[in-house]
Amino acid sequence: MTISRDFLALHRPGQPLLLPNPWDAGSAKLFASLGFEALATTSSGFAATLGRPDGSVTRDEALAHAKTIVEATALPVSADLENGFADDPDGVARTAALAVETGLAGFSIEDYTGDTDGPVYDQGLAAERVAAAAEAAHAGPARLVLTARAENYLHGRPDLDDTIARLKAYAEAGADVLYAPGLTRADDIRRVVAETGRPVNVLALKGAPSVAELAGAGVSRVSVGGAFAYAAMAAVADAAAELRDHGTYGYLKSSAAGRQLADRAF
To answer: Rg of the chain's alpha carbons, rounded to an integer?
Structure first.
């Protein structure tokens, strides 16, 4: 079996794959050392390492970063490729073809346009974009796992019926995994799982059901997005503030624990 098929096999309804999102090679090695079975890149976490906001990374930068994460461990990696860095299906297909060359096990494509006046692509065009990505992702022996994302709930469009209709269209277009980030109600998540017929990924957010509850809802994957990257930044900021404001070194306790983790991971 190829690594991409191994990755898809990890998506078991009711036994969700816990998919942490490293932001560099070190965090990838750390998560691998902690026993996770697969990894996914985070567009926001990676952008933060460059001192930029989410959405500012180029396609070449994202693919180079994905390759770095792939090479850091032996685990399968899925890349966050935002909207495919293109509006038209041909452009999305080109991004997908380039992703195939990086050694990835999979990648995601979202239907967010980047335009605040029209934040989500028309469903027909969005499905065409998924179909183009799927054709490239599934060509050849690697057959990358394509995750299609419906972004309604992240961009002021909390319409469950439309979200499910989109996910079903994306499944018909060839998506292997479906993802509607922003869903936090257990009943809504159960409905998505029941009506779409594909493995479903849920983003761990404040107010979302626990992993055990998501398992009971039939979810196949749980990811964290940029949350771990930002949690690391907050921990560093707290340590720096302690030194600046109090001149004390309480942070050395967690620093020592971090060094031990790094020694084991690296």
So the answer is: 19
